[in-house]
């Protein structure tokens, strides 16, 4: 955990400097998209260097560099150096670094760090989940009518808009509120912290959700694919919450439109 936190905080300092430049619109001549891509890659290089130095031989799965095989096939780091790129580009301080560790295919540790707010979420298997050393528990609300639910909205060139609108219509009529934050890793961390009662999204990659999954489970919650199974990485879909909210959300999403 110390190794993961050190890597996240060091990369966070780099992102914070670049975020300040984006806010001042001092982007590269190639355009803001290229500037953010450079910030993303620089953060990933920092994380890779820190983790590889501390644990040589571990494999990696990273957003920018993809899969990097190591001598130790039992361990794999899963890294997203900048989750919430669009927020970052627009000067919205809701973005995060996500690092998870897999041992023999099982998630055993996770870190989600928002450098703009200096919020560090950590979890180790069997050891609980924490926000800046404060123990986390998922919210205790039992009814969707009292719940605030997070989601990710598909946009230009991404996702099946028609299917999502059916799910949204089903859920929005049952809940107290719906939020779209723009960083799935932070959304899941917010569920672990009880800030949101549940979350669902499709079209995600393992690096978007790996750390968030263990945060939620160690905070007493449930995280599955949209069928209620364990194929989150394979399907790219996730549904999360405490036990009653998770169950109700799965059921509500699947209702046919009347």
Task: Report a brief summary of the structure.
The protein has eight helices and 13 strands. The chain has helices spanning about 1-25, 30-55, 85-90, 160-170, 185-190, 205-220, 230-235, 245-255, and strands at about 60, 65-70, 70-85, 95-105, 105-115, 120-125, 130, 135, 150, 175-180, 200, 220-225, 240.
Structure explained in plain terms:
This protein is an alpha+beta fold. The protein has two domains: 2-135, 2-Layer Sandwich (Fructose-1,6-Bisphosphatase, Chain A, domain 1); 144-253, D-Maltodextrin-Binding Protein, domain 2. It has eight helices and 13 strands. It has helices at 2-23, 32-54, 85-89, 161-172, 184-192, 206-218, 232-235, 243-253; strands spanning 58-62, 66-68, 72-83, 96-103, 106-114, 119-124, 128-131, 134-135, 148-151, 177-179, 198-201, 222-224, 238-241. The strands form two sheets. Strands 2-1-3-4-5-6-7-8 form an eight-stranded mixed sheet, sandwiched between helices. A five-stranded mixed sheet has the order 10-9-11-13-12, sandwiched between helices. A hairpin with a 2-residue loop joins strand 4 and strand 5. Helix 1 packs antiparallel against helix 2 (32-54) and helix 5 (184-192) runs parallel beside helix 6. The protein is globular and about 50 Å long. Residues 26-30 have low confidence and may be disordered.
